[in-house]
Structures are given as structure tokens and as C-alpha cells.
Sequence to fold (572 residues):
Amino acid sequence: MNLLEARGVTKTYGTLTALSNVDLLVRQGEFHGLIGPNGSGKSTLLKCIAGAEVATDGSIALGGRDITYATAPERSRAGLSLKFQITAVLAELSVYDNVLLALQAQQSMPGLMLSRSRHALHERVMHLLSRFQLEARRDELAGVLSHGQQQWLEIAMALAREPKLLLLDEPTAGMSPQERRATGELFMPIKDNCSLLIVEHDLDFIKDICDSLTVLDQGQVVASGPTQQVQNSDRVREAYLSHA
Amino acid sequence: MLAIALILPLFLDDFWVLFSTRVLILGLLALSFDLVWGYSGILSFGQALFFGMAGYCTALLATKLAITSVFVLLPTAALVGLIVAFAVAVIVILGKRPPGVVFVALGTLTGSYVVERLARGWSYVGGQNGISSLPRLTAASYEISEGPVFYYMALVLLVLVYVGLRLLVRSQFGLVLAGIRQRESRIAFFGYKTQNYKGLVFSLAGFVSGLAGGLYAFHEGFVGPGQLGPVLSTQVVLYALFGGVGTLIGPVVGTGLIDLLGFYFSHVWNTGWPIILGLLLLVIVMFRPTGLIGFFVSERERVGSFGRSSEGDQRRPARRKAAERVAP
Fold:
């Protein structure tokens, strides 16, 4: 069953066409890579799905629900979560509070005023922190973490709401090779209940963790299918080589 | 500080008791601005609107209907502030998507200006002259006159509001506000409808402004268009910036200091006071954006911690030890 269905997505900025009639399907539990040369439109597509941009034409549905024009909170409730390209942790808050903020989003306003769930959510905060090896630094401000740790904190926050689909915009940017490998492994346990859509430059990382790939070039889909198959396709090589 | 405030009237003559009461009331108004800007990132230039509207409404109740009971008038004042603020929030904050800072700032400023002009032109509410010689507030048959009694009433209300807001901004709700202030677009992706949170805080701040407005009107025995307009709204911004936004005590301290300095200079060098005030504020904003309180409170304390992990100092050492046991 398709979790994400983007059909005929087109995005124009004045006379510039960033995306032209793009289809993208992500199945339940699938790790899907979105690749392409610089300026191919992959970030634009991700933004249209995330709601940071609104598609000029076409439709985007998540779990059968149309989210083409939905606001950020509506998308979040539909089961979408995302990790920004530039780390957007709340630098003035502690690591612990960052995760708590992400976790408590389902609570009602009066409940939050009375801090009713503070106690109940503690275990879950600590669980997420330990999974991302941030337990020891929980009382420090998020702003002082290393770049790699900020990326992990972001991923922990993005996963906090147990989304159905997680969008990752260059999750390993600025990481060392070891951190990259560790990051890939962090995603494996969620595979049963969460799909991933990853935009990434690092093809090795993509090949390691993605089941299928979609390749964009100049705003159009060049190839889409299982990783092995797409990787060996001539058109993909051409698209990459002609821009290299 | 509270202790000083408690014994202050014993050492002051009448004039200074009136002066201090005014500081307490305006401090309440400054607190309301701090709640919206310092804690929630909503730049409101309209706090005086809620202050003045509450003042006018309660003044009308007192003069036209001869209602003077403090138990009716002050809650009414706060309620008027709440309702007017909510109405403004519906226009400038509560849309489908969150509004920008400048939009809200201009919207509230315009609202404040328009209502001041209306009040000036409307003879039913006294036009330019406002409504004067208000009767005194009463509690049963007791008349609350300006002086120590009014002072203590204002102090109690200020402390109650302070404690209430303190609980609010340190709750999980306060954590959401801290998130909104730092990165509103990010936390919308967690599923928070940030504009609803802002609308609620804005209305609450209106409640506090309204309460201050009612107190002020009956303390001065007068309500006029000046209590509605952008001048007072801006003055409140200065109080809060000077003392320190993002802390609850800062705005109250700022109000006291600016009014004291203002009083001193208006005797020594009347024409020069606005220049000095302007320069002082420039210096503060440039070198101490966290205000005077920034000298005493660290950035970390200012923002605070919300989760259980660092809740309460007695719990910390135990947890540290536990962490150390696990670490090696």
C-alpha cells in the first residue's frame, strides 16, 4: 500500500519550472531515497510535501488523506514529520526540553498549563535520549552540542511523535564517516512502523539504507524503482555524469 | 524585595505612597507586555488599549450606574481587557497560518491609535477631558482611599499576578512558549497550532492590562484618552526593555527605576529628561539586551528548564551519581 502519493506535482517560480509533473510513491515501511544533481528539484519536492512550499499543480496525499494545501500542524497530525537540512534545534533550551517539547505536542492546552504530562513523558524522553546517545548531555543547552549530535537530536525530535513518514533533508551533512554509519543504523529499528524519504548527496549512505530510489533531473523524474535497478540504469548515470 | 515593598509605606509620606502605588500598577501593565513579548515573541504596541478600555468601562460603570464595589469593578476591568485583547487577537493573530511579528506590531499600534482618537472625539466619554472625579472604590461599606490601603491592594494583586504568571511560564505550556519565541516555524511541525497559543497568551496579557487599567483609573480618580494611546503603549515597552524582558521581575524593576529617574530629572532638568531617557535605553539595548536584570540573572536561568531532568536542585546530585554509575 502506498503511504505517500504525490501525483503530477508541478512547482513554478515565475517563469522558472522547478518541478514538472513529478510522481512519487512511497510504500509503507519503505526507505526511499530522492537523489539528483544540484538544482534538480529534490529539495523543492521535499518542501512541497513538508508544506514549506505549496505545489503549483498536482496533489499530495499521505495515508489516503490529501495534504496538498494542509498547514504544518495538520500535516503533523496526518503522520508526517521532518528533519530540516540546517539543524533547527532550540538552542536556548536543554537537550531534554527539546525532546519534551516534541513529545508533548499531542497534549491539550489546559493539560500543558498544569504540567500534567511532565511526569508521564519522562520515561519516553529518556528512552529517546538514550537511543540517540544523548542521555549524558540532557541538561546541557542544545546549542552547545556538536554538529553531529545536533543532527541526532533533530532526528530524535522528528521521531518523537511516532510519525508514519519521516522526511530527511541531508541527514548526514557535516558528519564524519563513523557518524554516518551510526546514523544509518539508528533508522533500522523504526522500519516496521515508519517510512523514510531521504534527500542526500552521499550516495553510499543512500545505497546502504534505501530500498528504492527516485532520481530527479531538471525537475523531472528520470528513474524510479528498487535501488539496485535504478543504480545501474543508463539514464541515471547520464544525468549524474553530465552534471559532474 | 517583597519585604521592602511590604514595609515601604511605613517610611514614606503621602506623596511617595501614591508614587509607589502608581509604579506597582504600571508594573502590572509592564508585566503584561513582558508576557507577550518576552515570553511569547508577540510584539504588541497595544497594551495601553486594553488598559484604557478597562479604565473607561469601569469609570462609566461607576459614574453612570454608581457601582463602586471593588469586587465588581476590578474583575470587570480584567474581563474587559481580556475580551478586547481576544477581539484584537482574532484580527491580528488567529488566522489559518501564524502572522509575522511586524504585522502584529503594526496592527496593535494602529488599534491603540484609532481607539485613542475615537475617545478624544466622543463626548459621551468626555472627549479630550476624559472622565474625571471618579468615586472611590468600596469594599462593602469601606471606602478604599488612595494611600497605604490602595498601595497594599495593588501590591497583593501584583504579587498574585506575578505568582500566577510564574507558574504559567515555568509549566509545560511555558515550554511551548519558549519554543514559539525561538523558532515558531519549527515547532509548528511538531503539530502545535502556534497561533492558538499566541492568541491565548495575548488575551491573558489583556486580562492583566485590564486589571491594571481599572486600578489606575480609580487610583488617579480619572480616565482619559492618554491612557489608551500609543504613547503609554510605547512607555510600557520601554519599562520592560529597561528592566529586562523574559524575566517577570524585570519589567516591575524597570517601571520603578524609569519613573524614579523621570521624577528626579523633571525637577533638575525638565527639558533634558527625554534625551537622557533615550540615551539610557540605547545603551541598555545595545550593551545589555536582556535589560538591567541581565546583570543578575544568567541567560540559562532566564530561559529556565522545564523537564523533570533538571527539576529541583535536590534531585540533581542523585541523578548525577546514577549517571556516573552507568558511565564507566
Observations:
- Chain A touches chain B through 46 residues (CB under 8 Å).
- Chain A is about 35% helix and 25% strand.
- The CA atoms of residues 23 and 193 of chain A lie 23 Å apart.
